[in-house]
Fold each of these.
Amino acid sequence: MQTEQLKIFDDDRNPIGVATREEVHRFGYWHETFHCWFTHKEEGTDYIYLQLRSQTKRDYPNLLDITAAGHLLADETVQDGVREIKEEVGIDVSFEELLPLGIIDYCVITDDFIDKELAHSFLYKSEKSFEDFTLQDEVAGIVRVEFNHFVELWFGERESVKIRGFEMGKNGDKIFFENYVGRDQFVPHEINFYKTVIGKIKERI
């Protein structure tokens, strides 16, 4: 996976070549990703779905993240990114079913990892239940949270939110649970990234 070839860009979003995934995160090149956020309306309440990253993930293990996301390879179009949804959470969605949220750029820097993404972002208004999700090894579970509570969390109006969902058991069964989590249980995207996403989703739901 670290040898995957990705298109790289300068700070003005001009393409400057191709690099491996390992080089992209070592040298901090801007690169393209595909993000898809699932929402669902139930009895008048909007929910947002999040994936729980596997404990075996090299980056951000055991943290909550975008419903489905991944890198766009050098030879892929944005439309090809829809494969990430099927690969990660096992749900067939066509590109035409997605609502575009635009390209959202953000940067996260840790000791040995620089993540500078141009994220082609989309919303999928889902009618699926938890039973419809089939997860790959890199995704440990799926949860949902009331969208308004998610908003309040990232705008500093509450310290925690209630999540409900499932985690995959060792025997491949879905173990359902409820819990309260704070910001520290989410992948540390910039707060402004979460606020931007929230604003764009609000325009669509």
Note: Residues 191-202 form the longest helix (12 residues).
Amino acid sequence: MSKKLMINLLGSACLIISGLSVAQTYPDRPVKIIVPYSAGGTADFSARQIAQKLTEQTKQSFFVENKVGASGTIATNYVAKAAPDGYTLLTNDTTYAMLPSLFKSLPWDHANDLEPIAIITQTPVVLVVPENSPLKSLTSLIAYAKVNPGKLNYGSGGAGSSTHLAAEIFKQVAQIDASHVPYKGAGEAMLAVLSGQVDFLITAAPTAIPQLQGGKIRALAITGEKRLSTISTVPTFKEAGLPAYVVSNWFGLAAPKGTPTPIISKLAAEVKKGLADPELRERLAKLGAEPGGVTPAEFKKFIQKETVAWGAAAKQAGLNAE
């Protein structure tokens, strides 16, 4: 064995031992989970649910910090440039997979500068309208939009967000035109529906269900193969006459590139453990969310696949990188 190869092997062994040692004591201080959007949306909800479980399990504080703006790129860049020590994490989501299709350049390496940890939740999306809207069904909304092109407006969690692209795909599939009104997160977009500032919103089910159950908005259709038991009167898009509309959202956890593998593995195991809790699973199910918990390697492959799929969707919807 050459001297150079031996030195490299010894160096690698030292890094592994060092990483294992760090993982044994991790976390020994509070951990910050950055959410790219305002409070009230499903990304924020997912982050807070898993933060609570991680806090309970590790006996160390995991807390959420909302850092909004620029379709999530401000928060993502912040985490990508943070120290790779496991104490600054990101709640990434479907929008993350869209970013390369929406921006000609990003201030971080989209494919390499974040270490995927695990999917927290996956959810269907639901099209909602204000409670007093005259549009009582998906068919009536589409029919009105075709007769009055551009007159309807829809809210989103920001230009380039999953709520934005979900609506753009809906417009294309339904062959209608509607005007976009961006907000700083799905929570703010939901407030716009509640106040009647926008005509409709397509958002993740957990953002909508509490308002639906309170009778403050109405849902016209939900994605997925079957209805949700918690809002069983809401038809699927297929039942409502638009079977070609198939969209869903996911929300995960990621760390800066270079975070020691043992820490990534420990976090993934803790997330999986938290998501196995019956009480949390029941809470998620009531809001139409399914727990994730895949391995970091599986999550990485999933993001790569999603990036390709949403890139094709953006191109099909006529959205160009800016």
Note: The domain at 3-123+250-316 is CATH 3.40.190.150 (D-Maltodextrin-Binding Protein; domain 2).
Amino acid sequence: MEMDEALGQWLKQVSKAAELSISDQEKITKAGADVYAKKLAEVTKEKHPNTKGTGGKYGHLSEDISSATGDIDKEHSGNSVAGFGDKAFVARFLNDGTKKIHGDHFVDNPRLQSKCNT
């Protein structure tokens, strides 16, 4: 067997092994989304603790964090998402800041840390 043929067969085997089904891709990305959601919940509780009341109609901000398979439009393409649910607008105000609220980037920092640790 020639070296070219051997390398060609090896490349075909490696390429075939690297192909993952959408469900396998979602399992992998869901694990990453779970890590980010856990870190985001920890930071949210630390920076914005549940000290006042019941949190209203949707509960406290730190209790509104979840992860799910599928993209933001719920289409299954191998991606997974993590973040806030109904109280996302509150998280954005606290993260980015407003005229009267100084933003503390409690969402941005864990997102960057999660990317760097993978």
Note: The chain has one domain: 22-116.
